[in-house]
Amino acid sequence: MPLHINRLTLSHFRSHLQVSLQPDARPVVLFGPNGAGKTNLIEAVSLFSPGRGMRRASAQDMTRRPEALGWKISGLVDTPEGVQDIAFVSEQGAPRQVRINDKPAPQTRLGELVRLLWLLPSMDRLWIEGAEGRRRFLDRMTLSFYPDHGEASLSYEKAMRERNRLLKDQIRDPMWYKAIEAQMAASGTVIHHNRQRALDRITSAQAEASTAFPTAQLDLTQTEGEMPQTEDDLRFALQESRFRDLAAGRTLIGPHRADLYGVFAAKGVPAADSSTGEQKALLISLVLSNARALVKDFGAPPIVLLDEVAAHLDAQRRAALYDEICALGAQAWMTGTGAELFTELGDRAQYFEVTETDGKTSVSQANPS
């Protein structure tokens, strides 16, 4: 049985007072007018992976207003390790607590059980905006392959914040920096190598597939210079960079300065210079390649979240996307304003209509016709 959610229950989450869905392993179509709460549903699904979910929102921001009582999400998830009962609880804005099979669990455990990928309208400008968004996109792909990537990133960011405080306070004594830079070098090297390996896997998955979506040539670059390749080299680079970093008041070298560079392979044109449609097609291609590569590693395709993806594709590209998702066997949660955007899926998917009346959201199973 492929990885999928077969029961999803929300309580006081965003616009949803109480919602319960019982989907099967097929793709899930959520349709309804803008503002009805479709994206809130797939945001809830995104929390089944480590991190802050697809919107990177705080637990307090996710609570239903005006009650602000806190919220709960629970689900039965078919995983390669069997059916898991996973729940998240946030009480009055406190950070969510994870429970798996009614026992407290760390978020890292989610990365071992569930693999999730997503593509949102806000990512359409990924190639032409700042490097931070591309790093997040790359790190989500990397985390899908290497669950320890999140822990390494948290360790690096914590140490970098401590180093940046020293730099801003103009602390020059090298003894204050030694242990911090050692931690940054250890975790930073793991981050860099994980990213490189993830790009290698995506590249291989693109080369092995015959798809209607274009392929991208991908490179990991640095804002300045080159990323040191070993832990010792990164530690030495941080030490050598202190004088410059003191002047800037922040750390100017390390994996936090990385960028993802993409080229539309068939045309040899940088992704940033490609048309809007080509940029979107490249993103879809990367998500599909990521999913294909995970089938080999994880033994099952990931759950895929595609928010309003159909609205940006013509009928031919929509049909190609749906065919690829079904061929993968992935439970893809897709949103759109109308069921007609998913005509090419037919009965290969299950359909739920999301409506909002007098401030109350309801979700009901619908006929695809």
Describe this structure in words.
The protein has nine helices and 15 strands. It is of the alpha/beta class and 369 residues long. The chain has two domains: 1-115 and 300-369, P-loop containing nucleotide triphosphate hydrolases (Rossmann fold); 125-278, Up-down Bundle (Glutathione S-transferase Yfyf (Class Pi), Chain A, domain 2), CATH 1.20.1050. Strands 2-1-4-5-6-7 form a six-stranded antiparallel beta sheet, with helices on one face. Strand 10 and strand 11 (269-270) form a beta hairpin.
Quick tags:
six-stranded antiparallel beta sheet; 369 residues; alpha/beta; Rossmann fold; 2 domains; globular; Glutathione S-transferase Yfyf (Class Pi), Chain A, domain 2
Structural class: alpha/beta
Radius of gyration: 22 Å
Percent strand equals 15-25%
CATH topology of the largest domain: Rossmann fold
Helix content: 25-40%
The CATH superfamily of the largest domain is known as: P-loop containing nucleotide triphosphate hydrolases
Q: Which assembly state applies to the chains in this document?
A: single chain
Contiguous low-pLDDT stretches (5 residues minimum) are: none
Q: SSE order, as H and E?
A: EEEHEEEEHEHHHEHHEEHEHEEE
CATH class of the largest domain: Alpha Beta
Query: Would you tell me the overall average pLDDT?
Result: 93
Largest sheet features: 6 strands, antiparallel
Number of helices: 9
User: What's the architecture of the largest domain, going by CATH?
Assistant: 3-Layer(aba) Sandwich
User: What is the number of independent domains?
Assistant: 2
